[in-house]
Structure formats: C-alpha cells, structure tokens
Amino acid sequence: MVLNNMKKIVNGIEVELTAEEIAQRQIEEQQAEQDRLARIAKEEQEKARKESAIAKLKALGLTEEEVKSIL
Predict the structure, then answer these.
(1) DSSP assignment of 23-39
(2) Which of 4, 34, 46, 54 is deepest in the core (most CB within 10 A)?
(3) CA distance 3 to 14
(4) E strands along 1-71, which residues?
C-alpha cells in the first residue's frame, strides 16, 4: 500500500507525516491485519469445536433440547 500525502493534526495545524511515521503506520496496519486474521481463525476454530461437541453428544443419543441445556 502506498501512503503519501498523509497528514496529522498537531495543535490544530495540519502537518505532513514523516517517512518514519508513514513506515510505522504501515507496520501497525500490517499487524492489525494479522491480528484480525488470527481472531477470525480462532473464532472459526471455536465454532468447529462446538459443532463437533454437539455432534458427539447427539451421537450418544441426546436430544437437541438436552444438548442445548448442557451448552
């Protein structure tokens, strides 16, 4: 991603970001994207585990209501 003409407000004055600030922002954006993807993967894993547990309980002969009461 090319970030140019980026500005920030300092004491009510618009100021151009320095090259270092732009580089830091890019690093932070990449980290935020990695964190987002990790969170999504964790949520999907949790959902898969829950579905697996429900299927196993049903295989043992529990009804839908019994499964729901356990969870």
Answers:
(1) HHHHHHHHHHHHHHHHH
(2) 54
(3) 16
(4) 7-10, 13-16
The total of other beta-carbon atoms located within 10 Å of residue 29's CB is 12
**Biggest CA-to-CA distance, the chain:** 69
Residue for token pair 């320095």: 18
Residue with tokens 């969170």: 39
Q: Which pLDDT tens digit goes with each residue over 2-29?
A: 445 788 888 888 888 888 999 999 999 9
pTM: predicted TM-score of the whole model, two decimal places: 0.67
For residues 19 and 3, give the distance between their C-alpha atoms in angstroms, rounded to a whole number: 10
